[in-house]
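Retry 2 of 3 after timeout on previous attempt. Resubmitting structure tokens to design endpoint.
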């Protein structure tokens, strides 16, 4: 039986054209981009082209893109870099949302240990943050607001433009975690009005080990890594040239086919939802279904079963569930907990995320396998 991969919110395969762009820089062009001789200049020029491709994806400029090793590093640079600008004054106030990724919330907890005050903004039952709640959380001491543009588990898209207007009116910086959003929906930093925005290549058909942080011109930020001052002093260390060139190629690829791919994935997501609803009927739960959400993401509650056991029963499907049996971690998903779901409901939830190469046949087969597995487990 063939495997059906429905976990594209965790990672995506490297697109063939991206692999092709990377290969010369894994073997032939291995010089670093720092020196004044021809091989180095070739690498530097190609790397700057890649930086421009990432900038074009989100509507920024080359000078506003800092390459990193991951989305998590980019998020840490945005948050810690804001609070470490004055090492003798690591204080102030940070606002994050209850549905942010652990890369945000764990960094926030670390800063709290250092004396930063921390406020969590709640969401509604669809995982959407109320901008008025964000405004109510802002104080005179607030230095940064962090909101995930699109949630990694249920796909809910946040009203970032409204939040950015509030932050600007209060003179507070805004960071958008766009790791899940970039490559799936249109993300334009000028339209969103953000000061900082993080993204990750392997979420949009690029290589792992490559991320980037958009830093709006004039936004003050301290580095996390010190050394020879690469990436305009914000990220020292030899450049991961093949990975970053791959990120640029992936950014260019998804930008050129974004509308078409988003429509195709939304159609397959809705087909999958319809097939599961037909098989399980009114007992099926859809999380975030009433909110604007990512076109590829379906968060489903299969009543009466544990998600990890369901996926073991339907073992031809690769998908994600936050149940402790699957993750090996104690406790339920913070996102699902923020939706006021009980432990049983959270444990029975499975995230199904569609990708470019998912076919209608796979959707039909996956729905049948999941319904059959559910019926077997509850009988």
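Retry 2 succeeded. Sequence:
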């Amino acid at each position: 039986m063939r495997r059906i991969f429905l976990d594209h919110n965790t990672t995506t395969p490297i697109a063939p054209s991206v692999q092709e762009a990377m290969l010369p820089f894994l073997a032939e062009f291995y010089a670093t981009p720092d020196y004044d001789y021809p091989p180095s200049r070739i690498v530097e020029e190609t790397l700057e082209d890649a930086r421009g491709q990432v900038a074009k994806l989100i509507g920024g400029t080359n000078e506003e893109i800092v390459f990193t090793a991951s989305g998590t590093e980019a998020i840490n640079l945005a948050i810690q870099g804001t609070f470490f600008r004055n090492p003798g004054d690591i204080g102030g106030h940070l606002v994050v949302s209850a549905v942010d990724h652990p890369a945000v919330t764990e960094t926030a907890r670390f800063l709290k240990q250092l004396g930063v005050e921390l406020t969590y903004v709640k969401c509604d039952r669809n995982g959407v943050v109320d901008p008025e709640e964000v405004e109510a959380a802002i104080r005179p001491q607030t230095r940064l607001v962090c909101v995930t543009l699109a949630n990694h588990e249920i796909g809910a898209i946040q009203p970032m433009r409204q939040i950015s207007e509030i932050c600007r009116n209060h003179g507070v910086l805004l960071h958008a975690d766009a790791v899940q959003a970039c490559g799936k929906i249109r993300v334009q930093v000028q339209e969103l009005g953000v000061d900082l925005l993080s993204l990750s290549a392997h979420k949009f058909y690029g290589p792992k080990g490559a991320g980037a942080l958009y830093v709006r011109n004039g936004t003050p930020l301290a580095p996390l890594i010190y050394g020879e001052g690469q990436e305009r002093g914000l990220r020292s260390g030899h450049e991961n040239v093949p990975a970053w060139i791959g990120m640029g190629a992936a950014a260019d690829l998804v930008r050129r086919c974004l509308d078409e791919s988003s429509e195709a994935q939304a159609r397959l997501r809705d087909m999958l939802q319809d097939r599961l609803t037909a098989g399980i009927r009114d007992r099926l739960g859809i999380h975030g279904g009433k909110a604007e959400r990512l076109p590829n993401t379906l968060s489903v509650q299969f009543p009466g079963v544990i998600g990890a056991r369901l996926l073991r029963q339907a073992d031809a499907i690769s998908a994600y569930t936050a149940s402790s049996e699957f993750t090996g971690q104690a406790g339920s998903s913070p996102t699902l907990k923020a939706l006021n779901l009980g432990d049983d409901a959270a444990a029975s939830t499975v995230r199904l995320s569609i990708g470019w190469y998912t076919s209608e046949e796979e959707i039909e087969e996956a729905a049948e396998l999941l319904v059959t597995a559910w019926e077997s487990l509850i009988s």
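Attempt log closed. The first strand starts at residue 4 and ends at 5.
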